[in-house]
Amino acid sequence: MFMAKLPATIFVGFIFFILGSQWAFAQNGPNLGVLAASEEIVAWDISISPDGNGLPEGSGTAVGGKSIYMEKCLVCHGQEGSGLLNDRLAGGHGTLDGPAPIKTVGSYWPYATTIFDYVRRAMPYLQPQTLSNEEVYALTAYLLFLNGIIGEDEAMDAQTLPRVKMPNRDNFILAYPGEK
User: Fold this and answer.
1) What is the C-alpha separation between 144 and 146, in angstroms, rounded?
2) Phi and psi (nearest 5°) for 115?
3) Superfamily the domain 56-165 falls into
4) C-alpha distances in angstroms, 150 versus 106, 144, 160?
């Protein structure tokens, strides 16, 4: 009601005042935080692409991964990835098109490199980024083995991991089909 009774020039001036104030605030910012140093950015820039770009040196097998899993993963993910406090990691094959799909690393995830990326970035839950590259490769191999995707003695590294074909890889629909 109040705005409708104001002359047009005052209303327009009021709008410019509000917009100008918002612009000035946005330019100055709220003075929160500090700029990240380039060393900090590099330390967190650890993404691995589906084709394996960004995978580090190192290697591991399921045999080595089992003991690491028992020490650092079992309490949350259960015996052989069966699930406990946190998600189930193994099994679920053939359930995705049923009434109760079980989405695990082996039944749902499209790329083996995603396992490495996620484990290295976020696990163990209370101590992320504390595993060595060799431990992450070994855990990745163990999860692939638990899901029947690779053999127990197959070494996973920057060359072999991107070549692993996950069971559900071809069942994803590209959001933007023209881009790959």
Assistant:
1) 6
2) -60, -50
3) Cytochrome c-like domain (1.10.760.10)
4) 11, 6, 11
Whole-model pTM: value is: 0.77
C-alpha 152/C-alpha 66 separation (Å) is 10
Four-residue CA torsion sign, 48, 53, 55, 59: positive
Q: What are the sequence ranges of the domains in the chain?
A: 56-165
Instruction: Assign 3-state DSSP to the chain and report helix, strand, coil percentages, each to 5.
Output: 45, 5, 50
Residue 81 class from Cβ within 10 Å (0-12 exposed, 13-18 middle, 19+ buried)?
buried
Q: Which of 33-47, 51-65, 115-129, 156-170 has the lowest mean pLDDT?
A: 33-47
d(CA 42, CA 145): 32
Cα–Cα dist 84/71, whole Å: 15
